[in-house]
Specification:
The complex is a heterodimer. By secondary structure, chain A is mostly helical. Chain A has 14 helices and no strands. In chain A, helix 5 packs across helix 9 (about 185-225), helix 5 (about 90-125) packs antiparallel against helix 11 and helix 13 (about 280-290) packs antiparallel against helix 14 (about 295-325). The longest helix of chain A is centred in the middle third of the chain and has 39 residues, at about 185-225. Chain A is globular. The N and C termini of chain A lie close together (about 10 Å). By secondary structure, chain B is α+β, with helices and mostly antiparallel strands. The longest helix of chain B is centred in the N-terminal third of the chain and has 15 residues, at about 5-20. Classes of the chains: A mainly alpha, B alpha+beta. At the A-B interface, helix 2, helix 3, helix 5, helix 7 and helix 13 of A face helix 8 and helix 14 of B.
Amino acid sequence: MAYGRFLLKRGLQGIGVVWGVVTVVFMLRFITPGSPVDTVAPLDADQETRRRIAEDLGLNEPLYVQYGNYIWDLLHGDMGYSYISSIPASAQVFSKLPATIELAVAASVVAIVISIPLGVVSATRRHQPADYGATTFSLVGISTPNFWLGIMLVLVFAVELNVFPTSGRAYGFADSVAAIYGPAPFFEVATAWLASLFLPAITLGTYFTALITRLTRSGMLDELGKGYVTATRAKGLPESLVKYKHVLRNTLVPVITVLGLQLGTLIGGAVITEAVFAWPGLGTEIIQAINARDWPILQGSLIVIGTAFVVVNIAVDALYAYLDPRVVA
Amino acid sequence: MSDSDTTRRRFLTAAGSAAAAVSLAGCSEGGDTTPTPGDDGTPEPTATDSPEGTPTERPEPETREGYLQRANRLIHDEAPWVFLNRQYSVYGQSTDIEWSPRRDERVAAYAISPANDDGEDVVMTQSQMDSGVDPQDHRETPTDNIVLQAYEGLLERDAEGAIVQKLATDYTRLDETTVQFTVRDDVSFHSGDSLTPEDVSFSINRIVDDEVGIVSPQSDQLIGVTGAEVSSESDRTVDVSLSGLNPIVFQSFATYCDVMNRSWVEENENAYVNQNMDGTGPFAMTNYEQGVEVSFERYEDYWDEPAAISTFTINSAGESSTRVNRLISGESDIAVNVPPQEVSRVDGNDGTAVSAVPSTRVLFNGMRYDLEPFSSPEFRQAINYAIDLDSIIQNVLQTFGDPTGQPTLEGFFGYNGDLDPYPQDQEMAEQLIEESGHAGAEIELVTPIGRYLRDVEIAQAVGGQVDELSNVSATVRQVEFSTLVSQVTTGNIEDKPPWYLLGWGNATFDAIQTIQPLLASDGSLTSYSNEELDRLLEEAQSLPSESN
């Protein structure tokens, strides 16, 4: 019951945050320089043409009317139409979302698969070569800018060795699943999908991997020094059980919190990686929308990212509360 | 074209007014007034004369080209701009294909031939994708490159910029306010529908009339066109109404006005028309993934010879290094907009090469004539003398640019071949600044970031060279292009920065499309006003073009 109330409270808070995001995103248009008309109209368009375009885009209404219309439309799933392509913004934004989620999840998987074992090994073999190797990797990983790493990986593995494509997204996860049942050769589709995903995922996931490695290492070391570890060892439990059942489980609580927060950050923060790899996700869409002052697309993208961030955080809170019931109390 | 009547009428008018000699800005008091051969065969003062001098009498030009050439001379001498460079379009291309770039920056896959079996399926990577594929609902090159594979207009330009016939088999001027096109027979849209004169008139009206479907950003491009109607179904003729003479009406139709299938457009929503294509062009669209990729295959029922390549795919990468990587790794056959720093990588790779062509874009620094110190012609000239254009082109643009000394580019109608770019002469610059009475002036050049090839670096070079003068100091301020656009497009000169860098593309290959909006007193983007220039432009616009 307490857990249910906890989730309800978090859900209501989340709705409030999303509403705040929507409002801020809507207001951004009015405090940033440049008008959408400047993008839609040719440079030499006369003032009459500009006025007609502004009217056509609905920019002549008072601010409160535009805000009210926007919220009302949003509640009905309508994000407006792209100023540039005239395509419904919701369709355009959601068509780009899978690519970004795919990249963020792949980067997270890379990070989890590498970082947690690396952190455990580093902590359990403190001051040994494995520990030095892991901490050096963490330091380099945290210090390396995403865009530089991406460019280097492309030059080495795509341009020189030619084992991965330089950029782009050949297929998606859904294409691969469809290929199991469809006429397209599954192996070919899945290989192309994973090949195009590999370098962007490594690029995006490296910082994350380094971060979680350090967090896991320090968490493990912290837990290993606590009294309950001595007690479990005194009870005669095998060392592997002490480390991997008791110590690691307690270490993972803060790690999961960071994982959740970082997943939201990854969805919003894939902009640079997407630009380097011409990855057709929300990051690329946001850059194009900013350059074009295509507000319906920009607002839609930011709202989706903000909402994803909120949802992921609520899910993390729920998991955190499940792992550590003291949070609910 | 039946321009003879109007040419003769205008000639008589011009000849009558020529009796009254006009003053010419550009002759310095006490300067070298020795006449030199003029643009239109009349005596002209030298190019370096001061604009504040004694007027020189000479006969009026007799042709539109003559007026435009004289306008260019006046602008050169009055120096309302710091004349910079003509930009080049630089491409990387695979040796699997044979292709030469066009001067108007458009890439037509119809002009690509395979050099070997790998060249049958061609991929091009440009810097951005389309803004929807409605051919009449955009006005930027990346979208042009996509829609022109499937759509075509009545007229078009070849690689050198000359007008050629496409869906029109004939075009003629009936009178001052009417031109007529004869529509090609036996042409089919990709949907299978036959092309009719009704489709042509609908397409023209859809651009110039807001009530017919959309508010087209191309309406300015067909300015002066008021509407179109089918004059004869049997003769397949369409009459186009004009508000006045409009001497560059055919040049305009050669740039924009793709022909669409009326019934297809009317049956579908705008969003659908922006994601699908039904043109008459040499390629039919097979796949459209918004913002990601567009694929075409050869249209076998094309009215002309079918295209030489089988398929054409266009994708995009905003990062220039990514475009070049795709080219070098063999994923693309053409990389658009290869920056100077990437040229050696493309040229040094087996299987790829760089192709460059002078573009239709001119880069300049606008100077507001209504503000000190730029209100002084001597000061404006001094800034031009301070610049080492050759050095900028050599070191910043790595030779991918040409110096300019007038707003009209070489090869354009109205270009004045007698005008050279200002040479760098710092002593002259300092002297002119003293004469202007603005010694000690502090000026700031506003430049957009990343809008034009090496724009910031060019601005920094200009600012640095001006700052080297002993009696003026210059700084550079970088702004987002959208910020600069919002300042220069308000229609109010007072909203513009006093000194700013801008580029201007002119796909009509006619001087008027650069000078009118940017330098005429009533130009939508003007930073200058000069009654004599306005008069020359007015005269030019009252005469038909002799060629082009």
